[in-house]
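User: Some background: our group keeps a shared notebook of sequences we're curious about, and every so often someone picks one and asks for a predicted structure to add to the entry. Today it's my turn. The entry only has the sequence so far, pasted here. Could you supply the structure so I can complete it?
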Amino acid sequence: MKKVTALLVCLLLQPLGHAAWVYFDDGHGSSDDYYESTITPQGKTTVVKTFSAFSIVNRLPLYDAKVKGKVSQLVKFGSEQSSYEFDCKEQTVQLKSRVFYADREGKLPIISYKNNDKVIENDNSDFAKQFQKKPIYSDQSRNLKLMALACK
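Assistant: Of course. Here's the predicted structure to add to the notebook entry:
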C-alpha cells in the first residue's frame, strides 16, 4: 500500500501539462528528430518546437559582436532545439529561434539565435537565411511533416 501511495504522490507532483517529445524522423540517418507534443494554434499561425540529436558532429557560427556579420569561430554542437512558425493558409514556415547544445541530450547550451537578433537580420549568410519566412514546397519532406502537425 505504501508503494501505491508513493506512486500516486509522485504522479500528482508532476507538472501538469508537461510536454513530451515525440520521435518523427531520422534526418536521413544523421539525427534523431523529435517534436513537442503540445502544439497550439496562435491566431493564423502555429508554432512547432523540434529537437534534433545529431549522430555526427556539426558546427555553428559564433559571430564577433565587435564586427558586423563577422564569424569569430565555428563551434561544435551535438543537438539543437528549434521553434518554427507555420502559416497554414499561406503554406509558409519561418524559423523563429534555435538553441544549440554541446551534448546530444540538450543539457549544455552553447548559444541561441532568434530571427530578430541584429546579427541575423543584418547578415545574408546561409546560416542567417534559415530564419527568413519561406514557402513550403513538395520536396521538403521534413517541413511537410511538421506542417501536417501544425495544420491539423
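Suggested note for the entry: Residues 95 and 130 are 7 Å apart (CA to CA). The two ends are 43 Å apart (CA to CA).
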